[in-house]
Amino acid sequence: MDMEQTIAPTESRYPAARAWIEAWRAARAEGLDSIMLAVDGPIVSALLMNRITGDLSRLQWDARQSDWEGVWQPSWSGIGETVASEHRIVQERPDLAWRLPSPTSVRGKGIFTYPLGPVHADVAESLLYRLHVMGDEIIRLTLQNGYKERHVREMMGGRTVPEAMPVIARLTTTSNVHHTLAMTLAVEDAWGIQVSNPVHVTRTLMAELERAYSHLGDLAALAVSTGLPVPQMQYLHLKEAVLRLNFSLFGHRYLRGSIVPGGLFTVDWPQDTDPVGCARVISDVLDQAEAVAAGLQRTSSFLDRLHGAGRIPASTVEWGRPVGPVGRASGLGLDVRQVRPYADYADFDLQVPVETAGDAYARFRVRVQELSESLTVVRRILGGWHPGDARSAGSAPPVLGGAPVREHGIGVVEAPRGLLAYSVRFAPSGRIAAMGIATPSARNWAVVPETMANGNILQDFPIVDASFALSVAGWDG
Amino acid sequence: MYYWHWLTNIVRRPQTTGFPTERDEAAQAMSDFDAVRNIGLTGQGILRRAMAIRHVDAGSCNGCESELGLLSSPDYDLSRYGFSFTPSPKHADILVVTGVVTEAMVPVIRQVFEQMTAPKRVVALGSCAIDGWVFQGAPGVRGGLDGIVPVTTAIAGCPPSPGDILRGLLAAVDGVDPALRKEAGQ
Lengths: 477, 186
Description:
The complex is a heterodimer. By secondary structure, chain A is α+β, with helices and mostly antiparallel strands.
């Protein structure tokens, strides 16, 4: 069961701020994963999840009790996974006196800075990379985000749940099923809503379809980053095949709008769906994706570029604890679907690949195996899935009127890029009072600079970047 | 192996759709007929084929990027109409802007547009770039492209399907949406 722990100044021999950090550090060392850092009024809270049991706990600190004089803020105390939230807090809450580290300047003979962005080649999201190079070697990378900040968290304040959902679904469209699902789980948590099994199964189906097309797109980008357009085209064709299948099943290429709190929204679903035919398409996609991956595994020009490129230093893994395929390629086997099963995942014995090398090749292998696993799950579900059952089970979602049963609702899911968490506080009227969103991209971008400056040369940059496959929309939400 | 591919290619349908200039039921189904709206060509001269596209993300959710990326896939193959993506605005003929325009990106978009040589076109891709869509009124968000750069063609949708993006790009160049032209029986 979920528990809360509040650090008050009388409890400890340290000043409250330091006691809070020490308690957080101790919890982290004991196998709790920090999934969110948020400020709500005077309360600073860290949401923690047990890596084995999936139990959630909340560590709270009252900002009115003490100041940060002489105390290191979390990212300076070795807790790096919430550094993106820390940057937000610095801007929103000057009273906490948290500071951003001043950028260490790099000086020396023969050092050049390549500014790259916010507009860069081909089709890409806006982000400014500053690559400091000495000859070919990248010795430092600084990232500047915020160009596309849409302030979704602020926008959500005072909205009702139905008013919030369309924006949530557009925070990151390529993960919109998981964003919607995490928000839906948070709402169902707060209102105490239980949904039926066909709804769970359908949500699992959508989640795995999203993971499949997302990984196919990421693998296409990785293939072309090493100058191989043929596998890129093959992967893109498979991605398009999955997107068309999404459209034929749920009426939207990116599956948007089907998941709603309490059930499913089935009005836009096409009437004449053919799950068995779709399962055959998925079988085809699975066979072809495995063939393309096998071809890449035999291509030495591809392997040479990936082996050892973009290895995340061990100290950075320990500091930033990346999630998703990036984390699982560096030995961190956390997968929410296993430790805290949601939707129908308790019924699946998922094979979650874990690699330890932490380089671009390990991330490639993890993605390839996860893709096969996702497509297998999709095929299995489609074999026994009846859209009619899902329609009748989910089409009458309960009305979210009045006060929620609980003030806080939490939803944690495994998005294609990793752990995604929503923590929402509701006002007694049922409107959203405060909202915390922790996206996997925001978390994983924190380990990119150290990784890039770990013995890579300028030519490795696009490959390392593609092997992380992070979204800027998720960071700048 | 070569002959195997050769044989299967005879049996299989071509991967590339003919849409929007030819019939394709699958692409047609995902298309929204009213998506493309020509606001008016900038009147800076005629563009012939072989057009380079410069894409700028003004604050998108990466849905439009995903669809734009699929234009290079074998299924849509934008190069059959002479389109290509270019990293340099100096080489670009069409500026494609995706996402709601944030205050931080306004000067960037202006700069990219100024760097492009005439004749040039601006395509507002997706409902966000047209009017801000669900992000209207968000802090730090300007809204649509209006008043920043002159928009030639607006492609509505969230996100618009790749077929509609192709229609819009062709409309930006020719001044006529190929789907409308087909309706008129030309």
